[in-house]
Amino acid sequence: MGKKNPYPSDENSFNLVVRYEQYLDGKAAGYFDVEEFEKIVDYYLMNTQNTKAKKALELALKLHPANNSLFAKKAKIHLLLGDATSALNILDRLAITDDYEVNLLRIDALLKIGKKDDAIAITGKLITSDSEDIDLIMTDISSLYISNNELETALYFLKKGNELSPSNTNILYEIAFCYEQKEDLKHSEETYHQIIKIDPFSYEAWFNLGQVYFTNKEYRKAIQAYDYAMAISEDDSMTILQRAHSYFHIREYQKAIDGYLEYSEMTGEEFEPYMFIAESYEKMDQFDLALDYYRRSHILSPESFNALEGVIVCLLELEKFHESFTYIYKAIGIDKKSSEIYIYLAEAFTGITDYDNALKAYLKSLSIEPIQPETVMTVGNLYMDKKDFATALKYYETAMELDSNLELLSLFIAIAYYKTKKYQKALKYLHVASLLYPETISLFMEFCPESKNFIAKHQLSFSNQM
């Protein structure tokens, strides 16, 4: 978004740091002036080596004890280390009011200790109609307010900068960024349109507009924006990837697959694109092709639970139950606490008609995650098949507490009550089921052929189905 690098460096900085470190190790003699020390400190700060930066600065101040710019660097280090009060004390002792970098540090320190009004007063002095490099000033200032979670104030000053320089796209980018941070997508979108009006060939503006549309789930608009971005910069892989995601969300899966393949060829990345491709084929019910790409992903990352899960789902859909066990047990080895993987195990056992082990797997899943209404109902069905009607009833009642809208659940409860000779309760749930499912009585009699007299006795209650 056009952020200014706070640690300017040149191509000689690395060699300068090497010479400085050799000097510390006693391998080389040398003298470093203030400018060189500033470059050394900036190099360490840029590489987040704050301790080394602090050590270099201590040496610099010993050699150049009265230099204000070095004290400003010391204040910057204190800020980076979270000690804003010490930083402000150093800056106040400098008594410098016209140095741009010092004022930025002072604003940052004041914001961090909660003196927002004082920070705003200094900020206002930096932003004037005759300010040079207004875009860089606004970028620096907005960064300070944004990093201190003062988005509204950042926007206030950015808009002021926009008034001073209405065609400055760098300021508009910062405004759009603030709106995105505030999750104000409407105004972010409007700002990107402003940028595009000024610079129709801005790849960044079209791409970011696409991102706003994508976040707002306006996927067709996102695709159009990404197309414009690609017309300007056709080799940008991120645009290709985001456009593929957009096609996926509008269920144009083949176009999504083409995009993922193009992204993979362009970047050399394989694991994630293959996972996206596999999921696209899975959505198209092309499980053989989905399985192929999930397997490729698994080979690339054997410890990926998601890749294993994809392989397992496809094998189950293709009714390759015996083959699925190998992958299921691999997945359990990676994540023993996954309730879902034991559901897959149960489905595999069910596929080979091993209902006892299927039941054990379902119960294991419920021990990990009890709030699974459909699984609880399935366990009830398995106990029903084992003619353990009392236990089946217990699970059905639990499922009813979790989700009373499960299909045919009221009918199964009626059957379980009937089988346990609780006829009045069976009658109650038969009545509930009959209001929901026209086939209730025929299904009930299929499970309970001995119930003819019971049905006949109460036929008036179900005359609409007889």
- From the spread of the alpha carbons, the general shape counts as elongated
The proportion of residues in beta strands is under 5%
How many β-strands, per DSSP? 0
From the N-terminal CA to the C-terminal CA, the straight-line distance is 72 Å
Features:
466 residues; mainly alpha; 27 helices; 74% helix; disordered N terminus; disordered C terminus
Itemize the secondary structure elements and their pairings.
Elements: H1 13-24, H2 34-46, H3 50-63, H4 68-80, H5 84-94, H6 100-112, H7 116-126, H8 134-147, H9 151-164, H10 169-181, H11 185-198, H12 203-215, H13 219-232, H14 237-249, H15 253-267, H16 271-283, H17 287-300, H18 305-317, H19 321-334, H20 339-351, H21 355-368, H22 373-385, H23 389-402, H24 409-419, H25 423-436, H26 440-447, H27 452-457
Molecular structure report:
The chain is mainly alpha-helical and 466 residues long. The protein has a domain at 395-466. 74% of the residues lie in helices and 0% in strands. The protein is built from 27 helices and no strands. It has helices at 13-24, 34-46, 50-63, 68-80, 84-94, 100-112, 116-126, 134-147, 151-164, 169-181, 185-198, 203-215, 219-232, 237-249, 253-267, 271-283, 287-300, 305-317, 321-334, 339-351, 355-368, 373-385, 389-402, 409-419, 423-436, 440-447, 452-457.
